[in-house]
Structures
1.
Amino acid sequence: MKLKAEIQSEFGGLDAFVNNAVARPMKRYTDPLDCWKSSMDINASGMFDIVREMADLIEQKDGGSIVNIGSMQGMFGPDFSLYEGTEMDSPPDYHFHKGGMIALTKYLARKFGPKNIRVNCISPGGLYSGQDEAFVERYNKKVPLGRMAGHDDIKGVVVFLAAQASSYITGENILMDGGLHA
Ligand SMILES: NC(=O)c1ccc[n+]([C@@H]2O[C@H](COP(=O)([O-])OP(=O)(O)OC[C@H]3O[C@@H](n4cnc5c(N)ncnc54)[C@H](O)[C@@H]3O)[C@@H](O)[C@H]2O)c1
């Protein structure tokens, strides 16, 4: 893999890997099975491929941290009432992959603990990105903090899990949902 070779030659390994990418080929429950399959290719097979290769680079540095970005949708079923009257849906592949990510986090934490590699997951609630106004209004009313997450909300949690500040935490999943499930 080109990326792996470049990191290896430039930095001699990797200290931390944040596994953030996601593809959304499936938008709705009723979408064709091909959308599910494409999601499987990227969000399951591709995701595992990159994590395994990056873990290898972290091992070359005698340890470090992997931070998986999951979602509350991997922990809880969808609240369909939020989407009523909008074009939005909560596609099933997303729940499937984000739930699997939490399980994989625990698997990798056990596998790589002895190599001093910590593996944790962050499960954010909804991030604001210009969604349908009706959805946002309904969502905000349900959240104790009264708003959707912003991009800045996740940075501190990522830094915490990537750094030595969390040196004895591994296999953990941190729900970051503004209190929605409190
Ligand atoms: N948006 C939300 O409300 C929300 C809520 C909870 C969790 N999350 C999680 O936060 C993370 C970021 O979400 P977002 O909303 O910014 O997503 P996004 O769709 O805006 O961005 C995802 C990024 O992944 C990249 N990507 C997709 N397929 C790729 C591939 N095969 N290889 C490399 N890169 C690829 C895309 O180019 C894009 O830059 C995701 O893991 C998502 O599941 C998002």
2.
Amino acid sequence: MILKLRTTQIALTSLLQKEKEAETADLIIKLGGEGIRKCYQCGSCTAICPISEHYMISFRKSIKYAQLGLKEKLSSDLTPWLCYACGECSNSCPRDANPSELMMTLRRYLTMIYDWTGISRLLYLNSKILLSAIISLSVLTGIIIYFLHGPIITDRVALATFAPVELVEATGRLIFVSLASILLLNTFRMYRLSSSRIKLSLGIYIKEFFKTFLPNFLTQRFFKYCSEKRYWVVHLLIFYGYVASLILFEVLLFITHSNDPFLFISPLSIIGLFSAFSITYGGFVVIHGRVKKTKPLWKYSHPTDWMFIILLILICLTGLLTGIFRSIGWSIATYMVFSIHLMIVVPFLILGVPFTKWSHIVYRPFALYFGRLNEIRQSKIQEVVRL
Ligand code: SF4
Ligand code: SF4
């Protein structure tokens, strides 16, 4: 009797386990990982990947975890972050499984897993919710501007009077601190999921931060190993365009948001123009690729890919237009375009940065950093075994 009960219990546990695994695999397919059904584990993707020449990784193994729906293995896997979506592997996959897109899908999956708020999951799995969230945040920003804007001066452009400096600064800081906190907590979850509990000294954490995290964050050097260098340049342009706008409109907001006439030839304006042009150019390269499907990685586009790249370009164009109207002294046009600019910036930052693809700016270098710490832990274990 006891033996029978035990057998039934084991059968039930295994059934539940299988259901969970099927759910995970289905979820990955929903996120764009249709190719896991085609992959027959030949390993060509790992063999051909330019990254695997520099790093001991197996993309094939990550695909295997996805096929089997192994949630724990997938959640602790840092490999998908090392892929820079060059598409080499998809060109040579004998089953047309598009491994490059599979890696992108696994990054979406991991972004969802790291996100403790659950918002990421909602946005990735339901494009209607995503669209409604963007529209709601945009309308809310419009309402706040409508009720809280300052006096409308028309004989000259007085942007800092129309949009009071204190209000813009306080809102900017609030959004920045909230988003940074969410992203940091998500990164901590990433660390907990991907790292063993073996302790390392603080010195190692600091040393590897400067040796691994910072250089990779600043140069995105793994992208360079992928075949087409121009995409590395495009990637860097978007990245530094992003950083420049963050410095100008967050750190230096007290200078850039003023009533002074806008001059195109000034150090800050040049940084602003660099930011706008590089992001717009990079954005159009990506959109062109997605429309024409010129590369395997652009064959499939998740709705979030479209929405956020379009928002990013609109942010740059409205920012640029605000500068142009401001410099030629069209006050009403400046106030209107600036308001539209804010109505796009807010949903982009709040939804895009911590919850979807844009978080990869932080996750990628951290994946290399955590991976390196794991290597050090591994070598410590081997030392102990040898002793
Ligand atoms: S090359 Fe294609 S079939 Fe072979 S392991 Fe990679 S994804 Fe699977
Ligand atoms: S897309 Fe490029 S970097 Fe990513 S796995 Fe394929 S070959 Fe490697």
3.
Amino acid sequence: MTQPAEPAPRGPLGLDPRLWEILVCPCPAHGDLLPDEANSTLTCTVCGSVFGVEDGIPVMLLADA
Ligand SMILES: [Zn+2]
């Protein structure tokens, strides 16, 4: 079985779509994340936490101030 060569599908911010599919905020509500392509960040729609994405790798650390 042959398949035409296609570019690998990409999720928002260059994230692996399989990772993007399961990615949620680490806050207790596990909120959905809103991608911001301009700033390469993900914002939780529940708690408002902002996470950076570096080279397609989301930095999912809650700022515990
Ligand atoms: Zn959250």
4.
Amino acid sequence: MAQDTCPCGTGERYAACCGPFHKGTAEPPTAERLMRSRFSAFARREVAYLWRTLDADHPDRQRPEEEVRRELLAACNRYRYVRLHLLAATERPPGEQAEVTFRAEVFESGKDRSFTERSQFRHDGAGWRYLSGEPRS
Ligand SMILES: [Zn+2]
């Protein structure tokens, strides 16, 4: 994989893929792209982006920002976010909830911590946000 390939799995260069989302110069056009950009944000320790793309009703948003950002950074440092597999995406117009199911290949000190999750996303008027996720086996 080339040095600047985006970790989100599109095969695009980072600067032409999730980079603008992380920088805040663009918003992901779909829930799937938002989901991908959150995976690449974990891979690249873009903690501010991870916080910013949580839906206002996400449980972490009810907690102090500094504490949540510290935990997110700890997760970024503890795990290696290797690859993202998109299993299903149900796109909806803004105003409705979209659903994305994915498998994340994640490793912790060489141990496989990969997981499958079905996530809900909601558009808040500015962009798609991560509302909730439930583990799938
Ligand atoms: Zn990307």
